[in-house]
Specification:
single chain; about 220 residues; alpha/beta; 6 helices; 11 strands; globular
């Protein structure tokens, strides 16, 4: 599958897939979108916790993991990060994207190691950031229930990957979260919101990142009966 590195409106890069007519991030600003959706409206909700366990659906470029590592270091919070990815990117593409230029130099080595590290193994990069990447399709991944505080759901949009947004996958996200855990995504599609609600999530429809009117945050309020 062909992948092209393109610049977005905030000066950061993303990847465009012509075959799917889909970007990895918003063309209005890759960095702005990730910071707004996953850090500001996700991770920062847990700023009073000493440690946070995060699961990312769609590790992709590693941008969300990088920003989470930076945030954890900033507030001296331990981040335990698990990302799942079925179709890993080549290191050549990661280098072309150049996300390390947007953070302090102290994080550059760890960001590179994220992509070069072995799959399906746990790695510790600092006192505040531990990391594991799973090479699998989410459909084949057996989740451990009530283990995560926060889910970053950053798969391609429903138009491109409708099956990833189906209720069976969202139900896995419900199970993996601890009671009171948070699911956050850039997507605000009506069917996705209805399915999340039916699973026992309490929905919050928030202002979206630049170029998008809304985003979705959902809090696990009960187990499925």
């Amino acid at each position: 599958m062909k992948r092209e590195v393109i610049e977005t409106a905030d000066g950061s890069n993303t990847i465009y897939i012509p075959e799917m007519s889909e970007n990895y991030h918003s063309y209005h600003g890759a960095l702005q979108e990730a910071q707004h959706v996953f850090i500001k409206n996700g991770l920062q909700l847990f700023k009073e916790k000493k440690e946070v366990h995060i699961f990312e659906m769609g590790f992709g470029t590693g941008l969300n993991a990088l920003l989470s590592m930076v945030e954890g270091n900033r507030v001296n919070q331990k981040i335990f990060y698990t990302g799942i990815e079925a179709f890993p990117l080549e290191m050549e593409i990661i280098q072309k994207i150049g996300y390390e230029s947007f953070v302090d130099n102290e994080f550059n080595k760890s960001f590179k190691e994220m992509h070069l590290s072995k799959w399906d193994q746990k790695h510790t990069f600092s006192d505040t950031f531990s990391f594991e990447k799973i090479h699998a399709k989410i459909q084949d991944y057996a989740v451990l229930e009530d283990t995560k505080d926060l889910v970053y759901f950053d798969a391609f949009g429903p138009r491109a990957q409708e099956e990833i947004w189906g209720i069976s996958i969202l139900e896995k996200m419900h199970r993996i979260l601890k009671p009171g855990g948070v699911f956050v995504t850039y997507c605000a599609k009506g069917q996705v919101k209805r399915d999340l609600k039916s699973l026992g999530f309490e929905l919050e429809i928030l202002e979206g990142p630049p170029g998008k009117r809304e985003m979705t945050r959902a809090i696990k309020s009960r187990h499925i009966s």
